[in-house]
């Protein structure tokens, strides 16, 4: 980030606690690897703290004075558009996770209740159909999403300090978007193509393309029930098999519940940040 110069209506100095706090969160997210549902949940928690810091930063009087002085309506509009995109993506992610949790809970309930082998197979067929529908929703969402525009409205030469803050806000949007996309890829158990793998990049600011074996295993584990061989179940679901399926479903449900809570918390922080931006 560029150095902040002192002047009558100066912005916070580079050593301002809020700027240091925000940079710490950004550095943590830049250096993180999307390795599992646990790491995505951790990134969501970090994003909540990041947005809280941003919200507090844009409420600093000197920043609001600088915005008013330089008449920064254009870049405010750009940031507001970005916050709206994040709200939409986070809301969609939250809905998808909720639908998947419901489908897992329904299957779990049916398997516990049913003792007829053909009924168990029908329940799993219904689950697979539900997951296919959800995955189609996710693919359609990704297809319709617009690419993030990293270009900023030109700044006055004297507003370089303010430009540094806006650049930081754009980076926050890019990272937030990538974390949400990674969560969707994980819970929808989509097999990643080279294009999908690029969504796991936290942003153009973090040139990380590593996808860990741990995440591969989690996605494969999710596909275990998505691509279950129903013919095997029709031949008989023994007690051991049934307990194994129920255990996997419960584990899946707990993971999804944790992500759902993280997304809900992040959605609330996005709303607060947007309200602060609207007041500029």
TrEMBL record:
Mind telling me what this protein is named?
DUF241 domain protein
Q: Which InterPro entries match?
A: BPS1_pln (IPR004320)
Lineage per the UniProt record: Eukaryota, Viridiplantae, Streptophyta, Embryophyta, Tracheophyta
**What organism is this sequence from?**
Dorcoceras hygrometricum
Q: Give a single Pfam family match.
A: BPS1
Q: Which GO terms describe its biological process?
A: root development; shoot system development
């Amino acid at each position: 980030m560029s150095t902040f110069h002192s002047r009558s209506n100066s912005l916070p100095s580079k050593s301002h606690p809020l700027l240091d706090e925000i940079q710490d969160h950004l550095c943590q997210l830049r250096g993180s690897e999307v390795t599992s549902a646990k790491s995505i949940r951790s990134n969501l928690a970090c994003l909540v703290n990041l947005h809280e810091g941003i919200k507090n930063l844009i409420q600093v009087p000197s920043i609001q004075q600088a915005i008013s002085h330089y008449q920064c309506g254009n870049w405010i509009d750009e940031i507001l558009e970005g916050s709206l995109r994040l709200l939409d993506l986070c809301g969609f992610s939250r809905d998808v996770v909720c639908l998947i949790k419901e489908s897992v809970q329904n299957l779990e309930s049916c398997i516990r209740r049913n003792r007829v082998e053909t009924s168990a197979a029908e329940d799993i067929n219904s689950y697979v159909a539900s997951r296919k529908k959800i995955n189609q929703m996710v693919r359609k969402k990704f297809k319709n999403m617009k690419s993030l525009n990293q270009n900023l409205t030109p700044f006055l030469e004297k507003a370089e300090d303010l430009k540094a803050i806006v650049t930081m806000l754009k980076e926050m949007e890019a990272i937030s978007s990538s974390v949400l996309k990674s969560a969707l890829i994980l819970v929808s158990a989509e097999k990643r193509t080279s294009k999908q793998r690029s969504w796991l990049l936290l942003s153009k600011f973090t040139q990380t393309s590593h996808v860990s074996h741990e995440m591969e295993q989690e996605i494969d584990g999710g596909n275990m029930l998505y691509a279950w061989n129903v013919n095997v179940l029709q031949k008989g679901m023994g007690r051991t098999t049934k307990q194994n399926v129920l255990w996997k479903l419960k584990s899946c449900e707990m993971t999804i519940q944790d992500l759902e809570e993280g997304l809900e918390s992040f959605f609330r922080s996005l709303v607060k940040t947007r309200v602060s931006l609207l007041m500029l």
